[in-house]
Amino acid sequence: MCTCIHHKEKKYRLGNFFDANWESYIKDPPHPITPEQYKAVNAIRVCRTAVMGVDYYICLRCGDIKEIYHNCKHRFCPTCSWSDTIRWAEKIKGRLLNIPHRHVVFTVPHALIPLIKINGKELLNILLRTSADTFKDWISYKYKIKPGIISVLHTWGETKEYHLHVHMIVSWGGIDQKTGELRAIKGDYVNYDFLHNKFRNKFEDYLVALYNEDKLEHKFSDKRDFLRFLRQINKKNWIIHLEPPMSAASAVIRYIGRYSKRACISENKITEMEGEYISFSHKDYKMIGEDKKPVEKILRLHYREFFSRLLQHVPLPHFQMVRYYGVYATKTKIPKAYLNKEFETEEQWDWENPFVCSVCGQERVYMFTIFDVRQPKLRLDKFDIKLHPSYIFKRA
Questions:
Q1: Is residue 280 part of a domain?
Q2: Could you tell me if 254 and 377 lie in one domain?
Q3: 339 and 233 in one domain?
Q4: Over its length of 396 residues, how does the chain's per-residue pLDDT go in tens digits?
């Protein structure tokens, strides 16, 4: 059900573009469409429409009626993932250590992407694990500290091409391994050579082990061909980017909110939907403007190209895109005295309680629910809708 989190007003709805062009696309798709991709598209198309159901609530004092639309709750839906991210960020900020944190990005060589796509969850799990272990090992070796790490897998770049990388929020310090005290790291020094080599070696050790155990899906002719491929991708350093430590919890939360559970495209960035074409804004990191920031451009794509780019980022079934390591691991208990006390962020979210009348403040009373079941292309039984037993069903 929609919880009415207010942010920048959207001009376009992605579901409308799917409604207009999806049936044409699936007649001759350039790539096979998986059941999970079908499910994601169906969810986006019906999210917050009468197909999912509209609840009507009334204020008995002034008679004001509120329509509350059901949401699809699919993690690929741009609207639902945004709302979920905000709620998650509000929850997680109370678990952060009261020390600075750093934003870190691990990016694998582009040549590895076809191999990772073929193997799916297996290599994605390895990527998340090895990137986190790289920092845990280095901080443990250098400072004798156990840090906290929140990792988020992203498969897309600004133009929605496949660009595999891991965003991490790393506590710049942690729990002292000997004394158990909370200790921050002084300065922002990192040994890049050590980190690059550690990341690459850890990942490739797993790759070689999978190959030797005949568990790696591949197209190599033999082991010599496989090792030749590894030497080729090692000609350049594997990219690790670190930003300066952020001391304020509010800054950390903004980064978490920006890079966590959100879908790969924001409807706020859609600038035009016209017939078979869609346009959206994106940042060009190869061009830096006078303000020292990436230049923002507009990309216009035909629906065939746009859908192909978009669908490759639908998360694999039951795959966890967000992981927790070190002292932030789920089972780790952190002393309350070590947690951040700064809960007020500089940017506040406007939460509206839809069940309270905005006119007179009286609590609204449920009336009935209306469903529009006149769309034969969409099947409601795919969405596991749990309805209140007192709902009254009416056709729109």
A1: no
A2: no
A3: yes
A4: 544 444 455 689 999 999 999 999 999 999 999 999 999 999 999 998 888 888 999 998 888 899 888 889 898 999 888 777 777 877 787 888 999 999 999 999 999 999 999 999 999 999 999 999 999 999 999 999 999 999 999 999 999 999 999 999 999 999 999 999 999 999 888 988 889 999 999 999 999 999 999 999 999 999 999 999 999 998 877 889 999 998 876 677 777 666 666 778 889 999 999 999 999 999 988 888 888 888 999 999 999 999 999 999 999 999 999 999 999 998 888 999 998 876 544 444 445 677 888 888 889 999 988 887 655 454 444 434 333 333 333 333
334 Cβ neighbours under 8 A, 6+ residues apart = 95, 97, 148, 175, 327
Are residues 142 and 207 both part of a single domain?
yes
Query: Are 22 and 109 part of one and the same domain?
Result: no
CB atoms within 10 A of CB 102: 21
Residues 224 and 119 in one domain: yes
The residue segments making up the domain with residue 144 are 85-264+319-350
The residues facing 281 across adjacent strands are 298
Q: Tell me if 375 sits within 8 A of 19, measured CB to CB.
A: no
134 shares its domain with 60: no
- Cα 230 from chain centroid? 29
Taking alpha carbons only, the member of 163, 160, 230 closest to residue 200 is 230
Helix, coil or strand: residue 145: strand
Question: Angle between the 192-212 and 223-233 helix axes, to the nearest 10 degrees?
Answer: 160
Looking at the structure, tell me whether residues 201 and 331 fall in a common domain: yes
**SS3 track for 123-157:** HHHHHHHHHHHHHHHHHHHHHCEECEEEEEEEEEC
Mark whether 386 and 237 lie in a shared domain: no
Domain count, the chain: 2
CB 47, CB 79: distance < 8 Å: yes
Instruction: Choose among 264, 351, 385: nearest CA to 89.
Output: 351
